[in-house]
Amino acid sequence: MIINRSILSIVVLAFLLVGCGINREPLQIGGKQSPEDRIVAELIAELAEAEGIPVQRRIGLGGSRITMEALKRGEIDLYPEYTGSGLALLGLAQPPDADSGSAIGLLRNRYSPLGLSWSEPLGFESRPGLVMLRERARALGIRSYSDLAKHSNRLTLGVDSEFRERPVDGLGPLIRRNGMDFNGILEVPTGERSELSEKLMDGEIDIAQIHSADPRIEIFDLHMLEDDHEFFPRHDAAIVYREDVLQRYPALENILAKLEGAIGDAQIKALSRRVSLRGEDPREVVRGELIRLGLIDGELGAKDRQALSLAVSLSANADGEAGTVLRQLRRSFPTSNVNLVRSPDPLGAVADGSVRLALVSAPAFFSPGSVDPATGQPSLRQGFETVALVGTSFLHAFALNPDIDTLTGAASIATGPVGSSGFRAAESLINGLELSAELKPVSGDTPGALADALLESGADVAILMQPIGNSSALALLQRGLSLIEVDNWVQSNNRIVFPYLQPARIKPSDYARFVAGQRDDAELAGFIRPVETLATQLVLAGPANVDEVRLASQGPAASFVPRALPLTDQVVERINSATGKPEAIYPVLPQARALAPRLPKPPEALNPSPAASFLSVFAIALLVWIAFLVIMKPRKAN
C-alpha cells in the first residue's frame, strides 16, 4: 500500500508541475518565401533559442493568405508580415503616405477578435511595385504607372501567382486602377518570384513585379516605376503573432521589443543580397550577423574567398554583358556563391582575393608607359589569365570641349579610375599616338555618376572602353556630345606594339535599339555618321597559377601571389560552355591552360600484349576454318 501511495504521489506531482507552466511545446515560427521574410523569421528563431525557448521552424510556407491561415489555425505561432498585406487580407487599404503607427493600430484592432496581434514596425519597408530595365524604360519614356498604361498593350508583364490572385492589391485591381491592357502576362509560382528579374534581364518580359527591399533593383540598375495613382499602401514589416504565445513564453515579449525599429532598409537589403544573390543560407547569414553584433554567442567563420564572385567596372551595364555573364555563371554553378561586385579596378579585386573573376577589356592586362624588352609591348600586369571570351568593347572618345574635334588638339583626357579598362586604353592611346595630353582619371558609383564625373572633369576629351550600349556612353551621347575619330592608329607600328587595340567602326545604327521609342531624336545629334575608332576583346579573367606568376619588368610591385585559388580546368571548361566561344582570345593575352589547343591523340602502338595477340590469331584461324568448311562442303549427287 505504501508503494502504491508513492507512485500516486509522483503522478500527482507531475500533473501539478505541468499545470504550473512547465511547457516544452516548441515555438512554431513561420515565414513566407521571400529572402526578407526568411531572414526576419530566422532572426526571431535565433534570438528565441538564445533565450532558451525551444523552436520549430516552418519557414517558406507560401504567400500571405496561406501563412495567415496557418497562424489562425494554430499551426504556427508567429510570422513576419507587412502592414499593407495585413490590411489587404481584411479587404482594407490605407493611403501610401499614412504613418506606420496608424496602420499598426488599425491592424491590432481588427485582428484582436481572431486572437492575433501585431508588433511594432521592425524598421524597414518592402512595398510591391513594378520595374523595368532602366534603358528600356528610358527609351520608351516610361517613368510611372500612367506612362506604362500608354504602352502596356505591346508589353509583357511578369507576376507571381499570389499577386495575380489578390483581390484588393493584386494584378486585377492594379490593371483596373491604372487602365492597363498588357499584351501578355507571364505568371510564375510565388516561391519562384526571384525568377522574374532573371526573365526581365533575359528579355522574356518587359516589366516585372518586385518588392522595394529586393537588392536586385540596385544591383541590376532597375527602374522602379512611380506609383503615381497611389495604388499600393505602405508595407512596413512587423511580426503578427498569436496573443496566447506570450503567455507560454513571456521572454518573447522582450524579443519583440528589441526588434522594434532595429532593421533598417539598408540593413535588410545587405542581408537579402547575401541570400538572394550569393546563395547563402538565411540561417547562417542571420547567425553570423547576430554574433557580429554581440547579441548571441558564437564564432564567425572565415570569409569564403572561393565564392565565384564577378568583379565588373563601375560603369558596366548590369542589364548588359555583366548581367548576362552573371546569369550564365549562376546557371552553370548553382551550388556556388556567384555575386556581382563593382570595382574601380576589377583585376585589382582579383589580386586582393575578394573575387575569383573579373570582366575586363584586354587593355586592362597591360601597363603602358614602358616596354617589355622581351615582347616589345607594354608590360603585362602579372598574375592574371583569361578564362573566357565574352564580347567586344569599343573605344568611345567624346569631345567635352566643343572646340576640340581631334585627339591631337586635346590638352587633357578624362577617363575611368586608375587600373580600369578605360584608363589603360587611354594610356595606350596617348603612347601610340604620341599625344601630349594629361590623363585625368575620375570615378562614379554608377554608370550615370561616371558620366557626370567625366562631364565635370574639365577635360577636353573623355574616353570610355565599353561595349555598345553602355549606359555611361549612352548618357553622354544623349547629351549631344560628339564622338571623335581615331583614324590614324594604323600608322607607325601601333598594331605591333598594341595588338590588343584594333581598328573598328561605330555606326549610329549600333545604338538604334538602345534609343528606340525616344520622343526626341535630336538627343543623339552628335552621332549622325559612322566613326572610326578602336575595338578590343571583352574577357573574363582570373588568378593565374602560382608557378606561372613571374616578376614583371617593372619589379615586384607589378606582380602578386594570388590569394584566391586559380580556377581548375573543369571550371574553365564549364564557363566557356556557358558563355559560348565566338572566336579565339588574342594570343597576346595570358590564357588558362584549359584554353590551349588540344593535340590529337597519337595512334595506338602496334605492339599489343601476348594475350591480345593470341586472341587475334585464334579469331583469324577460326574464320579461316569456317571458310574452309563452307568451300569444301560436299555437294549432293544429281
Walkthrough of the structure:
- With 638 residues, this protein is of the alpha/beta class.
- It folds into three domains: 24-124 and 236-292, D-Maltodextrin-Binding Protein, domain 2, CATH 3.40.190.10; 128-224, Osmoprotection protein (prox), domain 2 (D-Maltodextrin-Binding Protein, domain 2), CATH 3.40.190; 311-595, Periplasmic binding protein-like II (D-Maltodextrin-Binding Protein, domain 2, 3-Layer(aba) Sandwich), CATH 3.40.190.10.
- Helices cover 35% and strands 18% of the residues.
- The protein has 23 helices and 21 strands.
- Strands 11, 12, 13, 16, 17, 18, 19, 20 and 21 form a nine-stranded mixed sheet that branches. The protein has a five-stranded mixed sheet with strand order 7-6-8-5-9. Strands 3-10-4 form a three-stranded antiparallel sheet.
- A hairpin with a 4-residue loop joins strand 14 and strand 15.
- The N and C termini lie far apart (117 Å).
Question: In which range does the helix fraction lie?
Answer: 25-40%
Tally of discrete structural domains: 3
Sequence stretches where pLDDT stays below 50 over 5 or more residues:
1-22, 518-522, 548-562
The secondary-structure class comes to alpha/beta
In short:
The protein is of the alpha/beta class and 638 residues long. The protein has 23 helices and 21 strands.
